[in-house]
Design brief:
The chain has one domain: Metallo-beta-lactamase, Chain A (4-Layer Sandwich), CATH 3.60.15.10. The chain has 10 helices and 15 strands. β1 and β2 form a beta hairpin. The protein is globular and about 60 Å long. Bound molecules: zinc ion.
Length: 289
């Protein structure tokens, strides 16, 4: 089992191959009564609210993990899935929309609908546009409240961070914040500059989360373990230090290649062990500092 988990750590990097998706691990953790985190393949987090109003799901993980995900959701409840929220457009958060969102209202930023409506180039493959029933039909740009299962969910768009259309979802009664990929807990984050993301705005958006939510909030990121407010602060602080190191080296005239060769971010090598490596983090920051 350990070996499977270790292999699956690299899922976001490896694509699909001949993986046996029917056997992937999904770790289910209760965050609060009726609220669970389903950690798919030790890589991507899905959050499920179940109760008197039915089921609400935040993020749909990979297309290939959908059957396993549905299996785990059905262990929690047989009720209909009323809402699916996509925190942003990436395939590891929207891949399951066709099944999870089939009979649900799908809530997302307009960029998600726009992106999924077109064929997507992925490496050498073309992923066809999604059918209408898998596309978001409730589009959020301004803050939106949604009463569901006894909570007044607060859905907020934080622009131009991980992508141009990142949503965060707060459950005030449970004091749980689902932050999507504005949190790669413990790791260098992926900032998708091809989809409107920006590393400086990314950091500003994390700072807004730190300011806005209570210090005893529990934060579920798209990747990595569940974080406390203090852990989020520490992660933000460490990332800020890496910005300063790259900025200072650039100001001295050092090239990206020299920074990598000298491993100027060696001190944060642990943060490069999930998806974005030390070198990729230098490449992310360099053009913007
Ligand atoms: Zn993402």
């Amino acid at each position: 089992m350990k070996r499977i988990i270790v292999l699956l750590l690299f899922l976001p990097l490896l694509g699909y191959g001949q993986r046996d998706w029917s056997a992937i691990e999904i770790e289910v953790t209760e965050l609060a009564p009726g609220l669970h985190r389903l950690f798919v393949a030790n890589a991507v987090a899905v959050v499920v609210s179940e109760g008197e109003d039915g089921i609400l799901v935040i993020d749909a993980a990979y297309e290939q993990s959908t059957d396993r995900l549905m299996e785990e959701i059905r262990k929690l409840s047989d009720a209909p899935i009323k809402y699916l929220i996509n925190t942003h457009l990436h395939f590891d958060h929207t891949g399951g929309n066709k099944v999870i969102g089939k009979d649900a209202d799908i809530i997302a930023h307009p960029s998600v609908r726009e992106y999924m409506s077109k064929d997507q180039q992925r490496g050498e493959n073309i992923l066809p546009a999604s059918p209408e029933y898998a596309l978001p039909n409730i589009l959020v740009e301004e803050p939106m409240d949604l009463l569901f299962n006894g909570e007044n969910l607060q859905i907020t768009h934080l622009p131009d961070g991980h992508t141009r259309g990142d949503l965060i979802v707060y459950f005030p009664e449970s004091n749980i914040l689902v932050a999507g990929d504005l949190l790669f807990a413990g790791y260098f984050p992926f900032v998708d500059t091809s989809q409107g993301g920006h590393p400086i705005t990314y950091m500003e958006n994390v700072a807004r989360i730190l300011e806005h939510f209570p210090t005893d909030v529990t934060i579920v990121g798209g990747h990595g373990p569940v974080f406390t407010h203090q852990q989020l602060q520490q992660w933000h602080d460490e990332l800020n230090k890496t910005f300063a190191v790259v900025q200072e080296a650039k100001a001295r005239g050092m090239s990206q290649d020299e920074m990598k060769k000298q491993r100027i971010l060696r001190q944060w090598e642990e943060m490069g062990s999930f998806f974005i490596t030390e070198d990729q983090w230098i490449d992310t920051l360099y053009p913007f500092l």
